[in-house]
Design a protein that fits this description.
This protein has 70 residues and is an alpha+beta fold. It has 2 helices and 7 strands, in the order ββααβββββ. The strands form 2 sheets. Strands 1-7-6-3-4 form a 5-stranded mixed beta sheet, covered by helices on one side. A two-stranded antiparallel sheet has the order 2-5. A hairpin with a 2-residue loop joins strand 6 and strand 7 (63-69). The longest helix has 9 residues, at 26-34. It is globular, with a radius of gyration of 11 Å.
Amino acid sequence: MEEIKIKDEFIKLGQALKLAGFAGSGVDAKFMIGDGMVSVNGETEYRRGRKVRPGDVIELEGNQVKVSSI
């Protein structure tokens, strides 16, 4: 499982998708989330502004990335 590191308490889901390389832009992330392609901790997420914190796992099309702190 891949991992992304954040320095703050949380990161918004759309930003996390870009950081993980799942989305090339905020617009791409918006459509992926809106289409129900993204899950956080096993539950489909439709909110681009969802706060993702260390320990959370984001999944897109079978690819998973874990959020951790620096």
